[in-house]
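Tutorial handout. Part one gives the primary structure; part two gives the three-dimensional structure as tokens.
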Amino acid sequence: MNKSNLQFWYFLIEGTIDDKTGAYGNFYTYGTDCGAALDKSFNIAKCEGINNPSVIEITRLDVIKDFEIPRNAAKIDDYSYMIPTFHTFELNKEEYSFKPPVGIAFDTNDGEFDQDLIKECFVAYDKDESKVYKFEMVVDKFNLPDIFFKCMDYINPVDAFCIYICDHWNNGIRELWASKHLTNTKLIYGFLNDYKASTIENGFVDLVIHSTNGNTNLILSEHKKIQLQTKSENVFKNLISKVTDLGYKQTKDFYNIEFGYNHWHYRPIDSLDCNDFKVLLIDNDFKNINLNISALKNQ
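Part two.
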């Protein structure tokens, strides 16, 4: 495999050595894309004794002029390097450290805010001028899929499901795909569960689930925030009550990997590439909706 055709990535990976010890490791890996390189780094980390690895920070190296691999990096193979010394620390259940959900990670360059400010929590906004109530929630890597599925149940009855493909996926255009037959919670759950890596864990898509009750939209954004927009005060209050019962707290100081944080989006290795994902959508009776407003006005 020719390195000139590959991307080169740096990963800061965190995991555990045992039930009392955590560890950070630094990895430099070539891959066809970020997800492929990350998967290789995860496998190396596991072989080196880091269990349950999570990526915290990443950056793309082949676009950095004159970048050189650190002299103290050990060569694993022709496509992988690592710093052989791990930083270890004592695990403390009372100390919280946010793990970015699969599909998004911090950049190595610091943003406006400190990473430690991000907590699992939510904010709720009273109705605006359009009489829409809004809710946003941050959940980490380990809890996100389960909480999102629970939120689907909290807005029943569900009647529609859409997927937005983001324009920064392969530098394409933003596309909206609407399902013709995934029109209830059970069917949507089945699809998302079957294609979790290409949907929930994909950093290049927005998922939108609609309920006629209050013209409600439940969204899992490309930044892996759970969002609610509704005109129903009952739906709004019910969701807040349910997530509060799950142990999540409302806050005014809301930080998330979007505004104020340098970050990267990626898709895991077991996800479909953009073209194959569109084929999957077509095979499952999704319709591509024209987002060109000016073109629609002229039809």
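Part three, for discussion. The chain is about 20% helix and 30% strand. The first strand starts at residue 7 and ends at 18.
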